[in-house]
């Protein structure tokens, strides 16, 4: 199996130089690592759940575009929230970005995310 690494400056680099890539293309699919609400080039995450969700999706979109795909080709996402009370606000932003044929999705509450993030989103998309 061929595996192609995807890297774009339009989204943050792997967290603190960790040993992973922004995304991998394998076959007809793109597997995108979890994206936080960190703007490219920024060192700190700021904003409420809506702002962080919007930025995480912008990062995800940039990576998918670098791979030759888009948010419209999402087939599966996983959303990690520090507080499930943020679900509705996250969901409103998410729904506005994933189109009229949203992907399958799982949402989890987690104890903590890197850099004090409130949300992280990982995805699989078709090319």
Principal-axis shape = globular
Question: Which residue ranges are poorly predicted, with pLDDT under 50 across at least 5 consecutive positions?
Answer: none
CATH names the topology as 60s Ribosomal Protein L30, Chain: A
Q: What class would the helix/strand composition place it in?
A: alpha+beta
The N- and C-terminal alpha carbons lie at a distance of 16 Å
User: What top-tier CATH class fits best?
Assistant: Alpha Beta
| Main sheet makeup | 6 strands, mixed
Please state the CA-atom Rg, rounded to the nearest Å: 14 Å
Number of helices: 2
Our estimate of the beta-strand percent is 25-35%
CATH homologous superfamily grouping: RutC-like
User: Order of strands across the biggest sheet?
Assistant: 1-2-3-6-4-5
Order of helices and strands: EEEHEHEE
Helical proportion?
A: 10-25%
Description:
The longest helix has 19 residues, at 49-67. The chain is of the alpha+beta class and 127 residues long. It has two helices and six strands, in the order βββαβαββ. The chain has a single domain (3-126), classed as RutC-like (60s Ribosomal Protein L30, Chain: A), CATH 3.30.1330. The mean pLDDT is 95. 24% of the residues lie in helices and 30% in strands.
């Amino acid at each position: 199996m061929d595996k192609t690494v995807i890297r774009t400056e339009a989204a943050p680099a792997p967290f603190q130089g960790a040993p992973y890539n922004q995304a991998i293309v394998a076959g007809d699919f793109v597997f995108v690592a979890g994206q936080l609400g960190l703007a490219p080039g920024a060192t700190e995450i700021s904003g409420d759940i809506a702002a962080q969700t919007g930025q995480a999706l912008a990062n995800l979109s940039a990576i998918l575009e670098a791979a030759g795909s888009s948010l419209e080709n999402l087939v599966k996402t996983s959303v990690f929230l520090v507080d499930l009370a943020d679900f509705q606000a996250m969901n409103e932003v998410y729904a506005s970005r994933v189109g009229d044929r949203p992907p399958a999705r799982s949402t989890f509450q987690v104890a903590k995310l890197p850099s004090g993030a409130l949300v992280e989103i990982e995805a699989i998309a078709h090319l």
